[in-house]
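Hi team, as promised in this morning's meeting, here are the two structures we talked about. I've kept the exact order from the run log so nobody has to guess. The first one is mostly here for context; it's the second one we should focus on when we meet again. Sequence first, then the predicted structure tokens.
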Amino acid sequence: MATHRIGLDRLPPAARTAVEDHTGPLLMVEEAAEGFNSEIAARVTSATGSWHVKGLRTDHPRAWTQRREAAVAPFLTGLAPALRWRVETAGWDLLGFEALGGHHADYTPGSPDLPEVAALLSRVGGTACPGVELRRAEQRLEHYAAHPDDLRFFAGPHLLHTDLNHANVLVDGRARLVDWAWATRGAAWLDAGYWAVWLVAAGHTPASAERWAAEVPSWSTAPAEGVTAFAAANARLWSEIAAADPSAWTRRLATAATTWHTYRRAG
């Protein structure tokens, strides 16, 4: 479920002051239109620089995602914007990230961004999983697997992003991933699989989506049975999300995940 977004001007004065202790007086605040996990999401600019600020109330049900993103950030050099500062005060947890340039990745067929995204996922796959507390992929998918035995395909020791929404990929020469709130430990090939769902939603056929997934080296380690099990789990997951929040984008992802699963079963 999407989190209700509020403006930076609605922060308690103590929290706003704590932010400006790091930034200096703010000259410009551009509220972000995309993203579904944060109550606060804005690009802020002062005389000394620019930052992307995201935050949640410390009593928010998903406050753990904010803590998770802060914990994993130091291990993501070259993959994600750097975390410059963190503020925890007045009931808020706020993260100040390096403000990246570039554009959100275009996943449509023929996009010049596709090789950059594949290269990014290849770099993620080559990054050691940090020794911080992370949810496990088989844990996150246990309610959606068609059979309990399918969960063995999703388990592994590798660092995963798991939210390959095109808005989470910024391309400026090379691609980088933002929003690591759902960082997970699991099988190396799963991020390529998550990308496949978004590729189908962007207009690719399932076969085309899998060809792009195959550009990520870890995809070669994915057993065919495991890919089919993963497609089935995602079809159930997105159907549940769309039923709870029947907006255009959730219905589009639910259709894409079901289309991919149908393709896998037919093959």
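And here is the second protein, the one for discussion:
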Amino acid sequence: MTDDVWSMVHLERAALIDDLAHLDDEQWGKPSLCEGWTVHDVAAHLVDTARTTRLGFVAGLIRAWFDFDRQNARGVERERGTSPTLKRLRQVASRRSTPPAPLDSRLVEEVVHGEDIRRPLGSPTPTRRSP
């Protein structure tokens, strides 16, 4: 089951990377379906969560004084960085690290946030390949 979930997560990440590959600056700056976040912010959040380990999550939550929204905002700010977010998204596409949450939440995160990005851009939901 674990390998099945991770293979679906990796397929979702690859599909989103394909969809983001041709965005211009205006599209990256477009509001997403996540209140207060642009397309770029959501992509940075996905990079951050892909890099997050269980221990890193707990440490980040402590540094944010147990404020989950603050922790998320810090992760987005960190991952927006100066290098292209798409490049960093490609770098984490096959990672298997996860915050302390059920493994299925990794897949939900990728699917839901993929739609948070695609819908405002008018992009169709990709045809998903089977794992």
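Starting points for discussion:
The mean pLDDT is 86.
The helical segments are 2-20, 25-28, 39-51, 54-63, 68-80, 85-92, 104-121.
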